[in-house]
Specification:
globular; alpha/beta; Ferrous iron transport protein B; binds guanosine-5'-diphosphate; binds magnesium ion; 14% strand; six-stranded mixed β-sheet; two-stranded antiparallel ribbon; 279 residues; binds potassium ion
Length: 279
């Protein structure tokens, strides 16, 4: 069997370490205080000696705003995991999907572990998993890491996308936004502009293009653009900002949130208010 490497990516407190321990059988300390998973922990998946998983620091975005974000990103770019397991706290899904949007831009085979489903169900909520899956274009597997429910199915799906190198079905989420055209055109133009540089730097081109528009200094440095390309980038960004009436980072964040809000409005059934009051 060929070697498979999984990277576990998710927000803080989404259950990464709990899932890691279920996957590996390791008795790793689980805690909420910062710094607990700053060291990356790698373990072998139970019953699958060819597959390893690395528990990465909890992050909210793939921008270089914090050490945790830089460490996680460097791991992706340097280690080239076969598959990303994106763990999402289903009880806080809107916020957690902001990272998912950025992971999808990497184009790496990814599965979404929709965690804390026990909590969602206990509160009387549900999530339309098949619909969410088709919106996102990646397998979505409801799990409870705490209760070890759905974890075997998660492993099967992750091994499958890894084996067949199945990347996300879609990466362009601009369409959910009434002003999505401007952002779509800018990302498209940037991807073309920087394609060769991204390939050389081994950073996925669409991801690099979006990050450059957001003003990511580390990606900019890694790509070593020519002076005329820097100027072109400035023009592309400026045009997007003028069309949107927002600065570039805000325009892109807005595009992501619009998609998330629309997807969640159609797939997340919140607990009934009446049920809250009855307790
Ligand atoms: P990490 O910060 O992503 O590593 O998250 P942890 O694994 O430390 O989990 C954060 C908290 O959520 C802990 O108190 C866990 O016991 C709890 N937790 C993790 N998974 C689940 C789950 O599936 N259901 C419930 N109810 N709680 C969970
Ligand atoms: Mg942890
Ligand atoms: K919780």
């Amino acid at each position: 069997n060929e070697k498979v490497t999984f990277a576990l990516l998710g927000n803080q407190n989404s259950g990464k370490t709990t899932l890691f321990n279920q996957l590996t059988g390791a008795n790793q300390h689980v805690g909420n205080f910062p710094g607990v998973t700053v060291d990356q922990k790698t373990g072998i998946i139970k019953g699958h000696p060819e597959a390893t998983v690395t528990d990465l620091p909890g992050i909210y975005s793939l921008s270089p705003y914090s050490n945790e974000e830089i460490v996680s990103r460097e791991f992706i770019f340097n280690v080239h995991p076969t598959c990303i397991i994106n763990i999402v706290d289903a009880s806080n899904i809107e916020r957690n999907l902001y990272l998912t949007m950025q992971i999808l831009e990497l184009g790496i085979p990814t599965v979404l572990a929709l965690n804390m489903m026990d909590e969602v169900r206990n509160n009387g909520g549900t999530i339309l998993v098949n619909e969410l899956e088709s919106r996102l274009g990646i397998p979505v597997i409801p799990i409870s890491a705490l209760k070890n429910e759905g974890v075997a199915e998660l492993v099967e799906h992750a091994l499958h996308v890894a084996k067949f190198n199945e990347g996300p079905a879609r990466q362009d989420f601009c369409g959910a936004h009434e002003h999505g055209g401007a952002v779509h055109r800018a990302i498209h133009a940037m991807t073309h502009l920087i394609y060769d540089h991204a390939e050389k730097a081994q950073i996925p081109a669409r991801f690099a293009a979006t990050k450059l528009l957001e003003g990511d200094a580390l990606v900019n440095k890694a790509l070593q653009l020519e002076k005329n390309e820097e100027e072109m980038m400035g023009h592309i960004r400026q045009q997007m900002e003028e069309e949107r009436g927002l600065d570039a980072a805000a325009a892109i964040a807005d595009m992501r949130y619009s998609f998330i809000l629309s997807a969640c409005a159609d797939t997340v059934v919140k607990p009934q208010e009446s049920k809250e009051h009855a307790r």
